[in-house]
Amino acid sequence: MRLAAFALLAAIAVTPAFAQDDDATPSQPAQPITVSPAEGNWGCVALLDNSKAGLLTIFAGSYGYASATFGSAASGTGTAEMGSDGVAFLDGNLTAVGIEKGLVTFDANGGDILTLYNPDKAVLTCTPR
Fold this sequence. Notes:
By secondary structure, this protein is mainly β. It has two helices and eight strands, in the order αβββββαβββ.
């Protein structure tokens, strides 16, 4: 008797849960992400020497970056594709200097960190402002 009850509970536990939405079908195209953990204002630091690098604002598919270095080619605006784990920079000043994406992770205290990457490596880390 106990074995049968255990088997029933085990079967229920491994059965996948499905949303109760009659309108949704697997053939519907995925909707673009409109809210991303990367959205907001960020203060960035260069990983090369831990110096202040600039301020980054990401909102509703666009971004603006103000470099701490006067006259930097990275300063300016562009468009971005929001992701569930970060952002992809599509055009504009950041892509002109090689930065392609940003991924949001957590620091040791559970705070957000946005790390910006060029094709080879991480180049900036940013924290919320």
